[in-house]
Design brief:
Structural class: alpha/beta
Oligomer: single chain
Distance between the termini: 17 Å
Number of domains: 2
Order of helices and strands: HHEEEHEEEHHHHHHH
InterPro entries: RpnA
Number of helices: 10
Strand order of the largest sheet: 1-2-3-4-6-5
Largest sheet: 6 strands, mixed
Radius of gyration: 21 Å
Strand content: 5-15%
Shape: globular
Helix content: 40-55%
Number of strands: 6
Protein name: Rpn family recombination-promoting nuclease/putative transposase
């Protein structure tokens, strides 16, 4: 278990608490988008839940905000590498879009511009870039962009193309991994200094220390309950073999597997994560890791 002071901005608790502060989230967006004129209109919302229908899957956005031009931002920090991040970004985009129009709105031009931003300590695309920005393009003419107002950005804290991005962005992405109290930040990076100020305040707060411990205890309890429930439902090596086949061969999501097998999602998700990080381990060895 990490202490609060040891957390980095890639850790969900610290990321959510810092980006819940409008000044900090605004500073991060200015760095990422290179727009010093960006001004957030609303207070950032962390863990914002959206659902298109009661019987369909909801999404829980890390940090959701709107700027004065009514552009919408969803900013996520994803510390663990999972196989579904690209399609997850697609699903998040679609559910966000479905919530933007009211009954009676006649034109789809009323849809807000949206930015889905995912920050990771790994390279999803293997091109060595710090930043990958995606818009829909025409296959027959790649220069022709589909101007539908949707932008997806994937940031890699371990990029190598320093000559293609701003120094401010590189410093921010390095800070995402370090986030230490004594980190040296250049005076020229005013936005990162703002973020660091709030990181220091949160790490020094006794109230936040208690909140972090309570959150950790809650998650530990849920994991214990998940393990107990998973074993009570007969999670044997045979079950692991079935999950391995459905996940790696059939490419089913953990959610679908959990639903099909009647197993706790948290348990199935953990096993799928282990299958990604330890693909060569036997079913018996995976049981010991659960």
């Amino acid at each position: 278990m990490k202490t609060l002071k040891e957390l980095t901005l890639l850790d969900k608790f610290l990321f959510d608490e810092v980006m819940d502060i409008p000044e900090a989230h605004e500073a991060a967006l200015r760095i990422i988008l290179g727009d010093e004129n960006l001004r957030l209109l609303s207070i950032s919302q962390t863990e914002k839940e959206l659902r298109t229908a009661p019987w369909l899957r909801s999404i829980r956005l890390d940090v959701y905000s709107v700027d004065e031009n009514m552009r919408i931002y969803n900013t996520e920090a994803q510390k663990n590498q999972k196989t579904d991040l690209l399609r997850r970004s697609r699903f998040y985009q679609s559910v966000m879009d479905s919530s933007l129009l009211k009954p009676g709105d006649e034109s789809f031009n009323l849809l807000n511009d949206t930015f889905t931003i995912m920050i990771t300590p790994f390279d999803l695309f293997g091109e060595g870039k710090y930043c990958y920005t995606f818009h829909a393009r025409c296959d027959e003419n790649p220069a022709l962009i589909l101007k539908d107002g949707a932008t997806r950005i994937f940031l890699n804290t371990r990029g190598t193309n320093a000559e293609e991005v701003s120094e401010e962005l590189i410093q921010f992405l390095n800070y995402m991994e370090q986030s230490a109290l004594n980190v040296d930040i250049p005076d020229t990076n005013k936005n990162l200094l703002k973020i660091h100020k709030h990181v220091r305040q949160i790490k020094a707060s006794e109230e936040m220390g208690v909140k972090f411990m309570q959150r950790w205890e809650e998650e530990a309890m849920l994991k214990r309950e998940g393990r107990e429930e998973g074993h009570s439902k007969g999670l044997t090596e045979g079950k692991i073999s079935i999950i391995r086949f459905q996940f790696l061969t059939k490419h089913k999501t953990p959610e679908l597997i959990a639903e099909d097998l009647g197993l706790p999602l948290e348990f199935v998700q953990k096993l799928c994560d282990l299958l990604v990080t330890h693909p060569k381990k036997s079913d018996a060895e995976l049981v010991d890791l659960l």
